[in-house]
Design brief:
Blueprint: H1 8-25, E1 29-32, E2 52-58, H2 64-71, H3 74-79, E3 83-89, H4 92-101, E4 106-109, H5 111-120, E5 126-135, E6 137-141, E7 156-159, H6 165-176, E8 191-194, H7 200-206, E9 211-215, H8 218-224, E10 228-232, E11 243-250, H9 251-256, H10 258-277, H11 279-294, H12 300-308, E12 310-312, H13 318-331, H14 346-354
Parallel strand pairs: 2-3, 2-4, 7-8, 7-9
Antiparallel strand pairs: 1-3, 4-11, 5-11, 5-12, 6-9, 6-10
Pfam family, one: NMT1_2
Subcellular location: Cell inner membrane; Periplasm
Protein name: Aliphatic sulfonate ABC transporter substrate-binding protein
Length: 368
């Protein structure tokens, strides 16, 4: 078995889940378009001769760079006469399957699906080319049932999907406390329940789960329903930084259309700069794009605390991705992977240098 491979029983599950998503709703995604300011720029040249670039993201505030970049037109302006076409996914593994199948070019994604996608393809299908966000993940619980961290034992805690970033984080946290959980079934000292973020609030209200380890805005939705924040994942990391969202691209697309990739990265850097300089306007833009994508916006009581807990950054925080891979190993989801080559930050560093910004590193995990 190659060093980058996954145990056979895990491979079966990881292979089946994306196929179920494909059968149900096209990789668990939906296409979205925008107003005129998000259409191809009239008269502008097409980048790399492309009619369009297919861009993916999740409808989470942790994907705020993509939400704002879409809504405010940063992505489309950078692509000029090439049309930005968007797909919104329900969870990261489905998006990785779309990239691996060739139906998506570039997208915003969590670290664990990126690691799984890279190792399953033995390093052939994707690269991480940029950072996007840190933080924005919390363990929220029913305060009537769970008052302390020790009380989590024996209760039902939801994560968004098997093998996604929050699923790995919860399994690792459980293991570090000395508790036992079977990673595949979720059964053990804590019952890990895999449930789409969209259904988690209803599951909490019905009492079928006792809490959840989830990204924003789902965490703040649960708090609005009476849950309490028991743990902010940020507090588990040195310097209170950890990657929650990166930008990944298919290696084929990167090789064939490097200018298009740099255009998306330029838009991402510009978007993050605008978000950090105009937090209130950016928060409103992200909410407006959520409304456009899903048909409803977030009320202020959910939006405000959720947005406050996320930090937007161009740095992919490569050292924390390596740590998250180790978490997946400890949780029993991966054999120790070889991640050298998962990053190619050269295009991002060209963009950053041109913008007069500091460059970023890959902690030795870049292409050679």
């Amino acid at each position: 078995m190659p060093a980058t491979s996954v145990p056979r029983r895990v491979l079966v599950v990881l292979a089946v889940l994306p196929l179920l998503a494909l059968a149900a709703c096209g990789y668990g995604s939906r296409a979205v378009d925008g107003p005129a300011r998000q259409q191809a720029v009239p008269g502008a040249a097409r980048i790399d001769g492309l009619d369009s670039v297919r861009i993916g993201y999740l409808g989470n505030l942790t994907h705020g760079t993509a939400l704002v970049g879409h809504h405010e037109g940063f992505l489309q302006r950078a692509l000029g006469g090439t049309r930005a076409r968007y797909q919104v996914f329900n969870a990261g593994p489905s998006e990785i399957e779309a990239i691996n199948s060739g139906s998506l070019d570039i997208g915003w994604i969590g670290p664990s699906p990126a690691i799984n996608g890279y190792t399953r393809s033995e390093g052939r299908n994707l690269r991480i080319v940029g950072g996007s966000a840190s933080g924005g993940v919390k363990l929220v619980v029913d305060p009537e049932k769970i008052r302390t961290l020790d009380d989590v034992k024996g209760h039902r805690i939801a994560t968004p999907q098997f093998g996604n970033t929050q699923d790995v984080a919860l399994l690792d946290w459980i293991a570090q406390r000395g508790w036992q959980v079977d990673a595949l079934s979720g059964k053990g000292d804590v019952s890990v329940v895999r449930a789409d973020n969209k259904v988690v609030p209803d599951a909490y209200r019905s009492g079928s789960i006792d809490g959840a380890w989830v990204p924003e805005p789902t965490a703040s939705r649960l708090v609005a329903d009476g849950a309490k924040v028991l743990l902010d994942e940020t507090d588990l990391w040195p310097e209170k930084k950890f990657v929650i969202t990166n930008i990944v691209v298919s290696q084929k697309f990167l090789e064939e259309h490097p200018k298009a990739v740099e255009a998306v990265l330029k838009a991402s850097v510009e978007t993050n700069g605008w978000i950090n300089a105009h937090p209130q306007e950016a928060k409103a833009a992200a909410n407006a794009q959520l409304r456009a994508d899903a048909g409803r916006e977030l009320p202020a009581g959910i939006l405000d605390p959720a947005w406050e807990s996320i930090r937007f950054t161009d740095d992919p925080l490569a050292g924390t991705l390596a740590a998250q891979a180790e978490h997946a190993v400890r949780a029993g989801l991966l054999e120790r992977p070889t991640l050298t080559g998962i990053y190619d930050v050269a295009p991002l560093n060209r963009v950053l240098t041109a913008a007069g910004e500091p460059t970023v590193g890959d902690t030795g995990l870049g292409v050679r």
